[in-house]
Amino acid sequence: MEDRSHKVLLALVMLFLFAVIVLQYVCPGTECQLLRLRALSPTAAADPYRAEDETPARFAPRFNFSAGDLLRRVDFNIKGDDLIVFLHIQKTGGTTFGRHLVRNIQLEQPCECRAGQKKCTCHRPGKRETWLFSRFSTGWSCGLHADWTELTNCVPSVVDSKKEVRLRPSR
């Protein structure tokens, strides 16, 4: 009988350890709201900027965008002269977002990316012109991590260098 109780106890301990391991994969760290007891209290989600010791917040969120700015819709004409210029700001997820632009964007003619190549071809339908100016489509044409000023001066000359002056759109 004692041998059977040891086996049952061992099975329960193994089941508990298995559950803990699975839970760590499903819900790692402190991000899991299911395990946090504070998540059950009504004041937990009230103010994310309030300190635990109720001291005044050192960070006051300020948004400089109106609701109209955030909800604004911009039409992009891939067949015309419209151009998307991606300004990469370091350490903000720009590499991931840039890859997303060339690989996953849903347009009439998305970029063509081949395995093993760093750059993708982003041509307009029926033309050999690019509609996307980013490191993943044109490379570092304006320099490594070009800022707004460098891109403003560089992009028109790089994109329109092959066109005649009278055919260049005003950007």
TrEMBL record:
Residues 1-24 form the signal peptide. It is found in: Membrane. The keyword Membrane applies. One of its GO terms (cellular component) is membrane. GO terms for molecular function: heparan sulfate 6-sulfotransferase activity. Keywords: Glycoprotein, Membrane, Signal, Signal-anchor, Transferase, Transmembrane, Transmembrane helix. The keyword DNA repair does not apply. InterPro entries: Heparan_SO4-6-sulfoTrfase, P-loop_NTPase, Sulfotransferase. It catalyses: alpha-D-glucosaminyl-[heparan sulfate](n) + 3'-phosphoadenylyl sulfate = 6-sulfo-alpha-D-glucosaminyl-[heparan sulfate](n) + adenosine 3',5'-bisphosphate + H(+). It is a single-pass type II membrane protein. Its EC number is 2.8.2.-. Pfam families: Sulfotransfer_2. It is an enzyme of class 2 (transferase). 6-O-sulfation enzyme which catalyzes the transfer of sulfate from 3'-phosphoadenosine 5'-phosphosulfate (PAPS) to position 6 of the N-sulfoglucosamine residue (GlcNS) of heparan sulfate. Belongs to the sulfotransferase 6 family. This is Heparan-sulfate 6-O-sulfotransferase. It comes from Rhipidura dahli. The lineage of its organism: Eukaryota, Metazoa, Chordata, Craniata, Vertebrata.
